[in-house]
Request: fold
Amino acid sequence: MITGFILRALEGKIVAMIVVLVGIAILVPALNLLTPPDSAFHIPTYAMALFGKYLCYALLALALDLVWGYCGILSLGHGAFFALGGYAMGMYLMRQIGPRGVYGNPVLPDFMVFLNYKELPWFWYGMDWFVVAMAMVLLVPGLLAFVFGWFAFRSRVNGVYLSIITQAMTYALMLAFFRNDMGFGGNNGLTDFKDILGFQVQADGTRAVLFALSAIMLALCLLVASAITRSKFGKVLVGVRDAESRVRFLGFRVENIKLFTFVVSAMFAGIAGALFVPQVGIINPGEFAPANSIEIVVWTAVGGRGTLIGPIIGAVLVNAGKSFFTGAFPEFWLFALGGLFIAVTLFLPKGIVDTIQHGFRVRKAMKAAAEAEKGRVGTDAVNPSAAQAAE
Amino acid sequence: MTFTSSIGAKFCGALLAAVMSTTALSGAFAADDTIKVGVLHSLSGTMAISETTLKDVMLMLIDEQNKKGGLLGKKLEAVVVDPASDWPLFAEKARQLISQDKVAAVFGCWTSSSRKSVLPVFEELNSILFYPVQYEGEESSRNIFYTGAAPNQQAIPAVDYLAETEGVKRWVLEGTDYVYPQTTNKILKAYLMSKGVAESDIMINYTPFGFSDWQTEVSKIKAFGSAGKKTAVVSTINGDANVPFYKELGNQGIKAKDIPVVAFSVGEEELAGLDTKPLVGHLAAWNYFQSVDAPINAEFIKEWKAFTKNPKRVTNDPMEAAYIGFNAWVKAVEAAGTTKTDAVLDSIIGVSVPNLSGGYSTVMPNHHITKPVLIGEIQADGQFDIVQQTAQVVGDEWSDYLPDSKNLISDWRKPMSCGNFNVATGKCGGKGM
Amino acid sequence: MLIRIISLIFIILSFAAPAFAQSGTDPKPLIDALAKADFAEAETLIGQIAATGDPKVVPALDAFSEGDLYFRKSDSAVFIGKTGDAGLELIDPLTGASAGPTSKSAVTKIRVNNNLRRVIDAAKGGLTLMSPDRGVRLAAADAVLASPSPENLALVEAALAKETDSEVKARMQEARAVSVLSSDRSVDEKRDAIKTIKSLGGRNALGILNSVSSSIDPSLKSDLDSAIGSIEAEQQLWDMVQNVWYGLSLGSVLLLAAIGLAITFGVMGIINMAHGEMVMLGAYSTFMVQEVIRTHAPGLFDWSLAIALPVAFLVTGAVGFVIERCVIRFLYGRPLETLLATWGVSLILQQTIRSIFGPTNQEVGNPSWMSGSFPVGGMTITWNRMWILVFSLTIFFTLLVVMKKSAYGLNMRAVTQNRRMASSMGIRTPWVDALTFALGSGIAGIAGVALSQIDNVSPNLGQSYIIDSFMVVVFGGVGNLWGTLVGALSLGVLNKFLEPSVGAVLGKILVLVLIILFIQKRPRGLFALKGRAVEA
Reply:
């Protein structure tokens, strides 16, 4: 009942968020392209590229929130799905370079030429078609999530064990992609992109479109996630998070529910990666680093998990903070970042969004002061995922 | 709770100071009486260990230039950012430096990945990057100057030295698994085989980043070295993994007398974390050592120690590369009379500045520089004893020992202005279409 | 027959000739000539100096090899230089008489390289074979063993004739055999030599035999090949043993890194991302202790690790205590939040260390008892790895006893199993929590002392161990100390058996994949906890 209440409260917020995102998708590129550079309303390309990157991270955080906030699966390996989507996009962009590479080889990307590849490895076939590449953006992370989840959820691996093996997965992938023999460019990764669908990647117009696409994709994924969580299925999902055994006893196939959510989430992450790569211009194995995946968890937690809009706000805020501090206080920004994490966990345990919502609720529920007196017990009933998910 | 609340106080203080400094910065920009120089080195994360030093060197050089009266009558101002060893962040910070802070040139990057990440940004926004670290070559950008060593300025002379002076016949090419070692080893293998070394006398082995358990690798080297031919190890092992590697060598009793190791990524800074007594005689190849006996070097070391207020601080090769790059840029700007990118790109080619080994380094049309190659043996005090010094070597961006790049040259002077001119087809653009 | 013997004697004499013919020539001008010689000329000079047969030249050769030979700029006279309080003290290379102190700028160091060091070693070997000191003779025999040459053969045989000590004699026999192989002695003598070298065994013998295999008399080819074959077969067997040892050694490092985490994460359930930083703090404590010892009491250096152990334990334990009191105690019952908070703590600790000590590696020395190696059959065991194995097992069993036998251990287990019940029984649960976290942190700190001996001491030290530590604890089974032990050792051995065949990179990937698969089979690790704790 309380969950239903929150969902109804959130419905309006999600619509608002989608409106904001679509607004951004139109307004920011317009201000970038149509206003003169010295105008007060002008948004420089630099800022737009930066904000586009945040939107990709926001989508990634949303993906994680779907499995963590609603299904209780704390994945410490979501960076892997993000990177795989990015690599699929990167491979397409590499093939688009064609004979414009430094060696002028029409088929092989530069790194293959100087590492003496004679022909294209099989997994690069077809990646020069946009449709195939986009299918791979969804399929590769989806398939990995499916295979991984199929085994893990069937064996009822959960809690910390699941978190650690997802971490092992992304760590193993990182080591694998670092190897030059893998055919993905080793630690330099894929870079020096030229065209996407015939448009120059560096051109302001392309950037504006990519930015708009990121915002709209995020809005779309938010809509999908909201639809999933608000459906009957979503209710079962929350059930799985809060009391897995009970849901199983009621006759639901918990592993299938988890698997579906995990795969959808991995695909979201893949889309985020695919949008990220053309905007920052590089994808390399560093994206697989376990620390990156932990950071995703941090964004989600800062914004508030289990709220859908929380992770979006968290990702944008934390990354904006990071951009600012690494420029303004290069020597001390880790203190600020570390302090932020501690402060958020201690003082805003539910994340920014949920804490604000909680504030509203408390005001509304002033009449039921007696219940509010119970304090901790009350909040636990609202969202007991924290204790459950970790074990 | 005092702990956390003090953190909170710090955080708030930091925020406040940040706001104030940004306003201060924009004020400075409005006055337009300084020339801004970007410093793009990781100050946190895994690469901080190497890159922080270069940031300090840049600050010192800029400081000194200002003491000499600045540049074009204006003061230089360093804009330091922290890309945090995160490659996409390098691209973001490069963009910020160029388009927001409007710097005249950027000095930075260490790993090839970070350079590859920022390269498109520099070409798009038409700015200049000085890259001060040895690298694998196979690149030439209109907007980048490579003041570190190309493979022919480090690897090949080192191998020649071992073959000639120590009579080495069998080679272990041991490296960290990433692009620089892979490319260098490919070049070396082709080079050694062209000199008549049999393929069975070359062993190539790779380990992951930050590898710390070298027992198996070292005993493999020992086994490979017991084939009755003089054996040497050519190490392209990356920074962090070197300390445990050398410790294991020392402990397993592999002396430089038996199997010498020549390294391309081990300098004075890396040795500072090691007890070098068991390593005496192992070699390194660089374009500069702190032990170079030249007045200009003595002066530089003195200034560096004074600037860092630490009499134990050492100098190393990338610092020299940064020194050369900065001075070449200063000279080019003075010659051009402006910091505008195109003018500086034209005026910098052919500029000669003193290097720290007592000679002069010249910026070549391929955006690499000339410098001598020094081979040094590790001493018990953590310094190198120079056992060989070659004449000036021109950095060769396209290796002559790789089949696809041997016909390529780069010349950024007009009218050619091409980074990958194919001498066989006479066309710009790799193989030519 | 007689002619043969005479000719043999003649041959021996002719080989010995260069060694003895110039006896009595004054080595002084030869040594002085080193001042202006390049590397190639120096090599010839060393040969000539050795050929004087004068043992008085040995200190000069030693100094040359060590890089302690200088020439005075004013008159090009060569001296041995000793660095003292008053700059450089010059010593006459032959008489050993002091020539007084001088400033470093008045002299130039005579350069030396690896090749010259080898030549010097061989020359010295020949010169000191007859030394009255047994140890010196043994070293000389080793030097000759390492540099076979016909010149040395005559010297070794002359020394052998006079040698009485059986061990030295055996070593000289081997040295002689090596030189015989590369000389033009008779086939029979060479055949004996091959036998001697075969019984010597090991990699060096293999190297010697391989080096002559192309130039050997065809009639000896089969003897040589069988000798090489048998040594190789033996060596392969030892390689297996060696792999097991390497595996155990890697396992002990993993165990050390993971054991503190087995308490904070395994027993207390805190996802302690700051664990690696505790290890790092332990390593920096060692560095600080060594710095103090270096400046105030250099004699105590061999004890530095023993002193560093309690210091590291107390420092990291105290830091752990503070973290628990300030952050973690608010997060019990919310384990996931501990991941975020401790991640923040780890960032802060890293940056603090970076701000104080700088980002570069700090030098932590190995005490003499942790340097070098000793042979066991056909393999070598390095002292540091052995002590680390012993050390990690000692910590493990001490901890086990504390947990299982002491009253404090009982309290701790009670609190982690049922906090409310324990509290009702009068246990001060907050106090126990704080102490347990401090204990886990302190043990991580002790691990840092040991790891400082084999790895970089830099602010990134902890990051390189944190993931492996979590793998070990989860693989072994959370909450079970034995699981951590077995998990660490088996992962180590597995890794080291994969490494030679598939390479280090792929080996590590395979281990990770195997862990993932293993968890599917046993979702709660190797030693799963039974009972109600599972559902908690």
